[in-house]
């Protein structure tokens, strides 16, 4: 296979600054960009990430940082503080910078798009969560239905499973890694979910959160090729114990004769802003 782009998948950082490790992985694995499927914060306050140096560390990464927002990334329905802060960082691309406005990322001829968890926030009622994803799904599919992206990203799996795509869908939220339905990726967390990842146990091994990251690669024709998931514990204690190192290979059906060949050997990254009318 000729090589296409590769992406480091992270999620549910929850205000822990793991970005020196992220940069090491980016360098060692020749990563094209980082894709974060949300919950950068714990309690919806940007001050958390300022105190731990997350924003400064993201700015120092050598590759673009592509992100959607999760249910912990704001403190009220219309809180835009995190979006405003991330917008000041040159290498950050917010896939839905405003409700009804999308940034479609192009890596060569490969496309990436995503939707925020707009109907949820830290401290919400935590009810009807599946139904709350409906508006985001409909808004995304209205925009990208005719030209589905190769990678579709949201925070909650209930949303991403229904997003249109011609490649893969990516979510986080559950703090664990899995692949189902052939192309739906639920991403784990490089931080073990922050304070949410610790268990109440007297056994230090049991209390240690499971951390993971994914490496998603595409071939030269923009088709998903492989997902490698590394799961481990002990990052915070400094005693790393690798739990599993698994690989998933994507199956491809025969392309339609009308499909034009695409070239994904270029790693030139561009963004295309798309606005829609969100009025009923």
Describe this protein's structure.
- The structure is a single chain.
- This protein is about 15% helix and about 30% strand.
- The protein has about 280 residues and is α/β, with parallel strands linked by helices.
- A 7-stranded mixed beta sheet has the order 4-3-2-1-11-12-13, covered by helices on one side. A 7-stranded mixed beta sheet has the order 9-10-8-7-6-5-14.
- The mean pLDDT is about 90.
Question: How many beta-strand runs?
Answer: 14
First and last CA, distance:
46 Å
Contiguous low-pLDDT stretches (5 residues minimum) are none
Q: What is the helix fraction of residues, given as a range?
A: 10-25%
Overall 3D geometry?
Answer: globular
| Tally of helical segments | 7
Radius of gyration from CA coordinates: 18 Å
Portion of residues in beta strands equals 25-35%
Strand order of the largest sheet: 4-3-2-1-11-12-13
Give me the secondary-structure category.
Answer: alpha/beta
Largest beta sheet, briefly?
7 strands, mixed
Assembly annotation = single chain
What is the residue-averaged pLDDT? 91
Pattern of helices and strands: EHEHHEHEEEHEHEEEHEEEE
Summarize this, please?
The chain has 280 residues and is α/β, with parallel strands linked by helices. Helices cover 17% and strands 28% of the residues. A hairpin with a 3-residue loop joins strand 9 and strand 10.
Which descriptors would you attach to this protein?
280 residues; alpha/beta; seven-stranded mixed beta sheet; 7 helices; 17% helix; 28% strand
């Amino acid at each position: 296979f000729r090589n296409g782009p590769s992406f480091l998948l992270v999620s549910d950082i929850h205000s822990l600054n793991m970005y020196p490790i992220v940069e090491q992985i980016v360098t060692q694995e020749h990563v094209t960009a980082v894709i974060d499927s949300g919950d950068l914060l714990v309690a919806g306050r940007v001050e958390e990430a300022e105190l731990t140096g997350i924003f400064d560390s993201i700015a120092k990464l050598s590759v673009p940082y592509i992100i959607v927002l999760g249910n912990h990334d704001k403190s009220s329905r219309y809180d835009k503080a995190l979006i405003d802060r991330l917008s000041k960082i040159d290498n950050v691309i917010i896939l839905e910078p405003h409700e009804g406005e999308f940034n479609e990322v192009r890596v060569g001829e490969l496309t990436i798009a995503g939707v925020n968890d707009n109907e949820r926030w830290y401290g919400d009622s935590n009810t009807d969560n599946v139904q709350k994803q409906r508006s985001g799904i409909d808004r995304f599919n209205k925009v990208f239905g005719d030209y589905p992206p190769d990678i579709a990203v949201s925070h909650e799996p209930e949303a991403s499973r229904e997003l249109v795509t011609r490649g893969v869908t990516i979510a986080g939220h559950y703090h664990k890694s899995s692949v189902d339905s052939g192309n739906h990726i639920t991403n784990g967390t490089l931080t073990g979910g922050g304070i949410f990842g610790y268990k109440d146990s007297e056994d230090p091994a049991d209390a240690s959160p499971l951390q993971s990251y994914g490496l998603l690669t595409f071939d030269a024709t923009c088709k998903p090729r492989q997902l490698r998931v590394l799961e481990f514990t002990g990052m915070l204690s400094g005693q790393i114990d690798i739990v599993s190192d698994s690989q998933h290979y994507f199956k491809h059906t025969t392309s339609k004769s009308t499909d034009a060949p695409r070239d994904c050997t270029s790693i030139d990254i561009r963004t295309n802003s798309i606005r829609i009318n969100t009025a009923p």
